[in-house]
Automatic annotation (TrEMBL):
NCBIfam families, per the entry: lipoyltrans
Organism in which the protein naturally occurs: Allobacillus halotolerans
Residues covered by the BPL/LPL catalytic domain: 31-224
Protein name per the record: lipoate--protein ligase
Superkingdom, taxonomy of origin: Bacteria
GO MF terms, alphabetically ordered: lipoate-protein ligase activity
Catalytic activity reported: L-lysyl-[lipoyl-carrier protein] + (R)-lipoate + ATP = N(6)-[(R)-lipoyl]-L-lysyl-[lipoyl-carrier protein] + AMP + diphosphate + H(+)
């Protein structure tokens, strides 16, 4: 098995989009004579499944406040919070025999490694569709797909989960949201570290990761790994893929075809309800109702929002020419847009 690390000029790449682009590019364009292992550690990010609606999965205001990015992967499954406290591992395996859909087999080397680190085998279980459970708590969720005759699969191992960020970032704020997307199943999560043998309990994330890599590769030391080094041509293509796909708002947010949601809030000017239909991340329909008083027809505001991306800067730009007090009373554009995105707004 080859090891491909997300390193450029000898330095680890933490950007989530670049890390995913490396794997995506190799998956489609690099064909070696053995399987491939990709370890990766990212800046704080919520990684969502290929078929998920971003708005249904994340708490955007919390993510904005804490500098957490969003990244859509090319495999299915649910949303997960990742950061530099835990390492993730992806695999590119030739052929589909006995591995595609077989999550128990996919987890086998990880389970063996954890046992060697002192984790009680009786507490480890591959459970449900794609989870690895330790003492009843989820420590990993896997995903896989098949492309060009190869299985592309991966999972994270939660050594030191950031529970506060995990819970807050994966808690959407919408008052009501309805769609036909695949929703995450939010299970209780656990930490691996307390279950390690005492002599391993103080391992750094890098020491833990090197140990896991050796287990996956069947080597005694990570320096013995068989490596594929990304070329300048590889990096040029990876940079292009990163920009066009993984750093692209339309891929991360706008890919979902259609969904609807409704928000209701009590403002000092009265109660307001807004219903939106969103297609490809843009407002397709908008209806504003409530018991507020205004001098102008709210249909003008509704029309201004049609075709606008459902993100803060675009909504603010679309409404900057309006004096919303003419339509709703004393409410600012910032307050109105925060309401549309279910951020904190003044209430009575």
């Amino acid at each position: 098995m080859y090891l491909i690390e997300p390193k450029r000029d000898g330095k680890w790449v933490y950007d989530p989009g670049t890390s995913m682009a490396i794997q995506d590019y190799v998956k489609d364009h690099v064909f070696l004579d053995d399987d491939v292992l990709f370890p990766y550690m990212m800046e704080p990010v919520v990684q969502i499944g290929k078929y998920q609606n971003a708005y249904e999965e994340i708490n955007q205001p919390y993510m904005d406040e804490h500098g957490i990015k969003i990244l859509r992967r090319v495999t299915g499954g649910g949303a997960i919070y990742l950061d530099d406290r835990n390492m993730s591992f992806c695999f590119l395996m030739n052929g589909t025999n006995d591995i595609y859909g077989n999550y128990e087999r996919l987890y086998e080397p990880a389970i063996e490694a954890l046992k060697n680190l002192g984790v009680d085998e009786a507490l480890l279980e591959q459970k449900g569709r794609n989870d690895l459970v330790l003492d009843g708590k989820k420590i990993s969720g896997a995903a896989m797909t098949v492309e060009k005759g190869r299985v592309y699969a991966g999972y994270s191992l939660l050594l030191d989960p950031n529970y506060e960020a995990m819970v807050s970032a994966l808690n959407p704020n919408m008052k009501k949201i309805e769609s036909h997307g695949i929703q995450s199943v939010r299970s209780r999560v656990g930490s691996i570290r307390p279950y390690l043998a005492p002599e391993y309990r103080d391992m750094t994330v890098w020491e833990f990761s090197d140990y896991m890599i050796c287990q996956f590769l069947g080597t005694n030391d990570v320096t013995e790994a068989k490596r594929y080094e990304l070329t300048e041509e590889d990096w040029a293509n990876i940079d292009q893929l990163t920009a066009e796909k993984y750093h692209n708002w339309d891929w991360n947010y706008g890919r979902f075809q259609q969904f609807e949601y409704t928000m209701t809030e009590r403002f000092p000017v009265g109660t307001m309800t807004v219903g939106l239909t969103v297609k490809q991340g843009k407002v397709a329909e908008c209806q504003i109702t409530g018991d507020f008083f205004g001098k102008r027809d709210v249909s003008e505001v509704e029309s201004a929002l049609i075709g606008v991306r459902l993100r803060k800067e675009d909504l603010l730009a679309a409404l900057e020419r309006f004096d919303l007090s003419e339509y709703f009373g004393n409410i600012s554009i910032d307050e109105f847009v925060s309401f549309l995105l279910s951020e904190k707004v003044p209430t009575t």
